[in-house]
Specification:
Blueprint (H helix, E strand, L loop, with lengths): L1 E8 L4 H12 L8 E9 L5 H4 L8 E6 L4 H11 L4 E4 L5 E2 L3 H11 L3 E11 L5 E2 L8 E3 L3 H9 L10 E3 H6 L10 H12 L1 E13 L14 H24 L1
Parallel strand pairs: 1-2, 1-4, 2-3, 6-10
Antiparallel strand pairs: 4-9, 5-10, 6-7, 6-9, 8-10
Helix pairs in contact: 5-7, 7-8
Length: 247
């Protein structure tokens, strides 16, 4: 069985791609499981292969497409993937030891859930790690809970950069929302409407903070673009909720 890790790659993340690979290469998986890493260059001549310490690793599959942002790149990576499970990993982040095994274990133990998330530690420029308050209790997350929290705070209750999802749900939702940012939050809120989820309190990701990341853009958390992103994320989730409640 395969777990597919999908990663969008842009030039600003290249200095960190090697450590992302190392964090993936060090994962110990349950018996019968293997991983593939589907890297998608966002534009031509990004140079992902040259940035990897083991560019000929057969588990690493690199593709490229016209520049369209992280949502397009992740969806294109997903289109090339083969795994029963789909795991997000940003090119500048790092998995913690055992992260994939915990995701697989939760999804195997709870066949009714469609997705998992985990606690995140911010990886600061000086190498220090910072957590934050507000995580839900570990365990099952009821349908709609993440959407309710997001509607109240416009902040996800769990971190979408840690998502691991059953393949059929990613396919059903068409991949990541076609937005310049918050595309992963849009996917998370939609998943929350359609399926129960799971939260692991043990950190599963070191989320790197650096000036070139997309969340550092001045339009990320305010202004007309932000308002439009929030509006369409909520509208899609509401439409899905209305549809599922009728069925």
């Amino acid at each position: 069985m395969i777990i597919s890790i999908v990663t969008a790659v842009h030039p600003g993340a290249l200095p960190y791609l090697g450590t992302a690979y190392a964090s993936l290469d060090g994962q110990a998986l349950p018996d019968g499981w293997t991983w593939e890493w589907c890297l998608q260059e966002d534009g031509s001549d990004v140079g992902a292969r040259e940035a990897l310490p083991e560019p000929d690793d057969p588990r690493v599959r690199i593709g490229s497409s016209r520049k369209g942002g992280p949502a397009v790149a992740r969806t294109m990576a997903f289109a090339r993937s083969e795994g029963e499970l789909v795991k997000v990993l940003d090119a500048d982040d790092e998995l913690t030891a055992g992260a994939l095994a915990r995701d697989i274990g939760a999804l195997e133990a709870h066949p009714q859930i469609g997705w998992t998330t985990s606690r995140v530690l911010d990886l600061m420029p000086d190498g220090s790690l910072l957590g934050f308050e507000g995580d839900p209790p570990p365990g099952l997350i009821d349908r709609g809970t993440v959407l309710t929290h997001w509607r109240q705070h416009h902040r996800a209750q769990v971190h979408p950069a840690t998502l691991c999802i059953r393949r059929d749900l990613v396919t059903l939702l068409g991949g990541w929302m076609a937005l310049p940012a918050s595309e992963d939050t849009g996917l998370l809120t939609a998943l929350s409407v359609l399926s129960e989820g799971f939260f692991t309190s043990e950190p599963g990701l070191r989320y790197r903070k650096h000036p070139a990341q997309s969340t550092a853009h001045p339009d990320h958390a305010q202004g007309a673009e932000w308002a439009a992103r929030m509006s369409i994320i909520e509208a899609r989730a509401d439409a899905l909720s209305a549809l599922t409640n009728r069925s």
